[in-house]
Amino acid sequence: MPTEESRTARQARPAPGALLLCRAEPESVAHAAQLLREHMLLVPAGGEWSVLVPEGRPWLAGDEPVDRVLTGWATALAVGASWPVLALWWDADRAGYTLASGFRRPVGYVWLANGTPAGEDEAMRTFAGRLGLDPVLDMQSLDELTRPDAAADARARMRGLIAVLTRAGVSLPVGLTPGESADSLHEAARGRPHIRIEWSGWRDALRAELDAVEGGRLGPWLPWAGGPRAHALALTQVAAGLPLAAWGLRHRDGGWIAAGAVLLAHGALGLAYEAVRPLD
What are phi and psi of 116, to 5 degrees? Predict the structure, then answer.
């Protein structure tokens, strides 16, 4: 019957899913992740890494593609932290990653469902450089992921990427495997010691996120540090946050709305702090 065939076809198509890898301890990631305003589970993923497992509501509802949501979320997390964020995502047609680090332009790569590379080789080199991967051994493995291979589909490409990250300290828990559905990933995360990320309001979330970055590399740039760098950062954040938030609203893109909101919140806080306590 056509109905049975269509149902079977839908079931055979890989369900969208995603993971957010952060090079930081779970406690630091938990503070920053509140600003995404999404329910997630957070589990350790190696000595220096943590992984966020989102429920996937934006893309499961069909409102936004998973790659666009994850790029926005990774950017939002990275702009307020001193550690990089790697978004791994996949759907029925493609799979790929996006690496966000500070205020630098995110870099990413895409494979079609059959494993055909659809990205730029330079992106892989930038990816390796920003994560501090071995420029010879790791780069050789990454180069192989950009070459045609009839025996490797998108899921196999993602496994190859994870293998390279393993040498950088990443250790994904059992069950958190690229290619699985959001429900399967969430179930696997629930079976391990985890931190539940829930939205607690802008005031608590922003305070927690600022606590997380204080004392890190961004410390001298925070509003209470004083000096021209803190003022310049606040202005830059507002200038960058406005168009990002506006673009996200215009395209109904929750990920970029979150990124713009984080930048605006940081910038506004810095300018407000300076107005209340002017520099000597």
Answer: -65, 125
Furthest-apart CA atoms within the chain: distance in Å:
79
DSSP-assigned letters across all residues of 111-137:
EETT--B-S-HHHHHHHHHHHT--TTH
- The overall pTM is greater than 0.70: yes
Q: Are residues 162 and 130 in the same domain?
A: yes
Q: Round to whole Å and give the CA distance between 62 and 79.
A: 27
- The total of other beta-carbon atoms located within 10 Å of residue 37's CB is 18
Q: Calculate the average pLDDT of the chain.
A: 80
Sheet containing strand 40-44, edge to edge, reads 107-112, 94-100, 85-90, 17-22, 50-54, 40-44, 195-197
CA atoms within 13 A on the CB side of 97: 28
- Which three-class secondary structure string do you get for 167-236? CCCCCCCCCCCCCCCHHHHHHHHHCCCCEEECCCCHHHHHHHHHHHHCCCCCHHHCHHHCCHHHHHHHHH
Residue 229 domain boundaries: 218-276
How is residue 35 annotated by DSSP?
G
Tens-place pLDDT, residues 47-89: 899 999 998 888 887 768 899 899 989 988 887 678 999 999 9
Per the structure, how many domains does the chain have? 2
Phi and psi based region of residue 100 (left: phi greater than 0; alpha: psi -120 to 50; beta: remaining): beta
The verdict on 130 and 53 lying in the same domain is yes
| pLDDT reported for residue 233 | 61
